[in-house]
Design a protein that fits this description.
Blueprint (H helix, E strand, L loop, with lengths): L1 E10 L2 E10 L10 E6 L11 E3 L1 H9 L3 E2 L1 H10 L17 H35 L17 H13 L1
C-alpha cells in the first residue's frame, strides 16, 4: 500500500520534513518512491514556505490509490486535495485502570484522614467542655491576694526563725 507521509530530515532539534510517497512497509526516513513536497515546522504559520506541495504529482498519486497520513491529509485539505476532519476520541484524556485504582486509594486515604481529624477534634472539644465543668474544677480562693491560713502560718514561722 502506498502512503503519502512525512520523512524527517534536518539536524538535532531542528526538524525538517519531506512529503514523500512511499511503501507503507518502508522505514519512516528510509526508501521512498518520490518526493512531492516539504514541511518546515520552524517557520511561522503564515509563511508560504512552511508547506510546499507539488499539487499535480500528489493528485496523480491519490488517483493511483495512495493514502495520505493524518498530518499530510491536514496539509492537503488546505489545498482542497483531500478531506480531513479532526478525529474525536473522548477516551483520550480518561485515565487507565491503574491510575483509577491509585486515585481511588488516595481518595479513600484522604477520607480516612479527614475522619480521624474530625474525631480528634470532637474529642478535644469534649475534653475542653469536661475541664470547664464546675464539679471537677479545683476550689480557688476568691481573692488571689488572700493566702490560705496554713500558708500564712508557715510564712510567719519562717520569718520568726530568721
Amino acid at each position: 500500500m502506498l502512503k503519502i507521509r512525512l520523512a524527517r530530515g534536518g539536524a538535532k532539534k531542528r526538524p525538517y520534513y519531506s512529503v514523500v510517497v512511499a511503501d507503507s512497509h518502508s522505514p519512516r526516513d528510509g526508501r521512498f518512491i518520490e518526493k512531492v513536497g516539504a514541511y518546515n515546522p520552524l517557520l511561522k504559520k503564515d509563511d508560504p514556505k512552511r508547506i510546499t506541495l507539488n499539487v499535480e504529482r500528489i493528485s496523480e498519486w491519490l488517483g493511483k490509490g495512495a493514502q495520505p497520513t493524518d498530518r499530510v491529509a491536514r496539509f492537503l485539505s488546505t489545498q482542497g486535495l483531500a478531506k480531513w476532519e479532526p478525529s474525536s476520541n473522548p477516551k483520550k484524556a480518561e485515565p487507565h485502570a491503574k491510575a483509577k485504582e491509585r486515585a481511588a486509594a488516595r481518595a479513600e486515604k484522604a477520607e480516612l484522614a479527614s475522619a480521624a481529624a474530625a474525631e480528634a477534634e470532637t474529642a478535644a472539644e469534649e475534653a475542653v467542655v469536661d475541664e470547664a465543668t464546675p464539679e471537677e474544677a479545683p476550689v480557688e480562693a476568691s481573692n488571689p491576694d488572700e493566702q490560705p491560713l496554713a500558708e500564712a502560718e508557715a510564712q510567719a514561722q519562717d520569718s520568726a526563725e530568721g
